[in-house]
Amino acid sequence: MSMVLGDALSLLLFRLHSGRLLGINLLKVNEIIPCPTLTKLPSRHPHVRGVATLRGAALTVIDLARAIGEVGRSDSQDGCLIVTELSRSRQGLHVQSVERIVQCSTRDVRPPPAGAGAKAFITGVTQIDGVIVQILDIEKVLHEIAPVLPEEIDEQLLTSAERGLLNGRRVLVVDDSHVALQLTLAALRKFDLDCQAVRSAASALELLQSQAESGQPIEVLVSDIEMPEMDGYNLVRAIRQHANIGQTYVLLHTSLDSTMNTEKARAVGANDMLTKFSTVDLSKAMLRAFQSLA
């Protein structure tokens, strides 16, 4: 599997107590451990089973079945924990069992069915050996339990000249996660940027082309990496192949914390990469972008 191409997706398949089969991007998984003894907190969120101690550090343990609308088994000590790390936080997902790791192509991942609704907690659907696998939207699960709010921006964070540099500049945000999209837009609009948003790479390409043809080109694209049908890496490749939009500045904005991802981002031609979600870091990334375009 080529780590530069960015088209392959490794999924960890697991089951909930109901038998439901789900997958999670392997890059978001730190480790898998037996369910440890938990300390229950009286004021905990109803979807949080408790807190475990893992190598001296506290780890919040989420009853994943309950968090996505199924009947959980909060008093059960069976099952295991999938320890995930993303968007600058670490947590354990309590599941019934872990099955195996499989590889698929992002091109074979389809968006959730139109009727799935906002509470579906899945970010895509694919087939593995003829069996339908739903890919968990872990960001949505975490946001429901502990909503991420854009940080309040200190007026001194940007000088008046820097604010002037950003004011009214054209930015397009693409992210298949509604939660992530709204957080990013809210942060960018604090800097008076002219923002548009789409939910897929194909829509982003189409809008970049139409804006360029109209004489009002998008200057900076802020793109998620993990998206169904075409991921962020392949979106960058496609942009670089088009003469009229090939010079668009691209910031890849990802929930994954990995040096390897930065190398992959550079290899496909991205200008910058940032881990979600920090309004301050995003503001600095926007300054880097528009200073380079000045």
TrEMBL record:
Modified residues (4-aspartylphosphate): D224
Pfam families reported in the protein's UniProt record: CheW (PF01584), Response_reg (PF00072)
Annotated ranges, domain CheW-like: 8-147
Taxonomy, superkingdom: Bacteria
The keyword DNA damage appears for this protein: no
Residue ranges of domain Response regulatory in the record: 170-291
The entry's keywords: Phosphoprotein
Gene3D superfamilies given in the database record: 3.40.50.2300, CheA-289, Domain 4, SH3 Domains
InterPro entries, sorted: Chemotax_regulator_CheV (IPR024181), CheW-like_dom_sf (IPR036061), CheW-lke_dom (IPR002545), CheY-like_superfamily (IPR011006), Sig_transdc_resp-reg_receiver (IPR001789)
Alphabetical list of PROSITE patterns matching this protein: CHEW (PS50851), RESPONSE_REGULATORY (PS50110)
Swiss-Prot/TrEMBL GO biological process terms: chemotaxis; phosphorelay signal transduction system
PANTHER family with a match to the protein in the record: CHEMOTAXIS PROTEIN CHEV, CHEMOTAXIS SIGNAL TRANSDUCTION SYSTEM RESPONSE REGULATOR CHEV
Protein name: Chemotaxis protein CheW
Species assigned in the record: Pseudomonas taeanensis MS-3
